[in-house]
Amino acid sequence: MTTSQPAVSTAEAVPFNKQPRDWKKIGIIVLFCALPIALLVVFTYLPFFQMCGYSFYKMKYIGTPKFIGLKNYTDIFTRPDLLATLKLSLYYMVGALIQVALALYLATVLAFKVKGGSFFKGAMFFPYLINGIAIGFIFKFFYTRGYVLDSVLQWCGFSLDNLPYWLRDQKVNNWSLVASSVWRYLGQTMILFIGAIMSIDGSLYEAAEIDGANKWQQFKHIILPGIQTILVLNIILSITGSLSAFEAPYVITSGANGTGTFFVQMDKIAHSDQKVGLASAMAVVLLVIIMICALIQKVVMNYLFRDADDGTAKARKRAQKVEKARKKALRNQNKVAVGAAPLFRSASGAKAETAVES
């Protein structure tokens, strides 16, 4: 006959070594985290929520605000002048896509060994280091009638009378401003692409050449999948920047002749007209539009790159599953081992037994 006796409790058999807390280290970590979080809340989130509240009022900087509900939002989509400024964003969106395409082409060339590559990288990146106001004044003189651009075109054989007024003619003035923005931000986008391309393993190109892949096939099947994250990031930054274009139209034309973007008009309404509630509503609408555009870009890029996996993502997921299964098996094994035979003797020194035959 076999009878069972209760085994010694695992909590009593296995000692628990509790390390003392280092309160000094915890305090330092909390202090270092508290300062940036406090600055972020005070100077970003609180003003943002206050601005959202202002958008429901008719108010000026001085005076008593009057609650008007959603009237400011309805004015944004019913006033022709405000709708026209939203349409101007399409010019800058097209320019942003051209900028990304040019930057990707130049980065693909300059990421590899090219004579004078370092010089071209520095020359292309230099405009991004210049202050936006200074660039505005540079292009203001560049486009002025009879100045730099007109002089260069006359040297090429064009007649001054046949050239348009680059900043007055509404057929070309917005494209002129878009060109200045592309010139400024092209180098930044290119440098980001170069860093991503240079991080790709060089053995992939060697294997592709052995298999007979040409440069276009290497670009399509190696470079594009390898820089997918940076490509999506650059497109999102370029599109969102085009929606909030301000410096070029404000400095070069002051928003005249149909060049006032949504941001320029919002600045005029807030500071010149002192319609703080309407300007706040415009800021909220602009934020929503940017978020929608970023979401659409993310969905489109995921669809375009759905078959562009080089095996890295699948291998990572497979390794995560294997690691998770290994940890689970190890935990089960430890539970069985601890329940069957305790690792240490109890305090009285008696050995634990799991079964006794009688």
Structure description:
- The chain contains 15 helices and four strands.
- It has helices at residues 10-13, 23-54, 71-76, 80-110, 117-129, 132-143, 148-155, 173-198, 202-210, 215-226, 228-243, 247-253, 262-272, 276-304, 312-340; strands at 2-3, 57-58, 66-67, 356-357.
- It has a two-stranded antiparallel ribbon with strand order 1-4.
- Strand 2 and strand 3 (66-67) form a beta hairpin.
- The protein is extended.
Question: What are its keywords?
Answer:
358 residues, two-stranded antiparallel sheet, extended, disordered N terminus
Question: Topology, please?
Answer:
Layout: E1 2-3, H1 10-13, H2 23-54, E2 57-58, E3 66-67, H3 71-76, H4 80-110, H5 117-129, H6 132-143, H7 148-155, H8 173-198, H9 202-210, H10 215-226, H11 228-243, H12 247-253, H13 262-272, H14 276-304, H15 312-340, E4 356-357
Antiparallel strand pairs: 1-4, 2-3
Radius of gyration: 32 Å
Termini separation: 6 Å
Hey, roughly how much beta strand do the residues contain? under 5%
Mean pLDDT: 82
Structural class based on helices, strands and sheet pairing: mainly alpha
Main beta sheet, described? Answer: 2 strands, antiparallel
Which regions have little confidence, pLDDT < 50, spanning 5+ residues?
A: 1-14, 343-358
Q: Spell the H/E element sequence.
A: EHHEEHHHHHHHHHHHHHE
Counted beta strands: 4
Q: Count helical runs.
A: 15
Based on CA inertia axes, which overall geometry fits? Answer: extended
Helix coverage percent of residues? 55-70%
Strand order of the largest sheet: 1-4
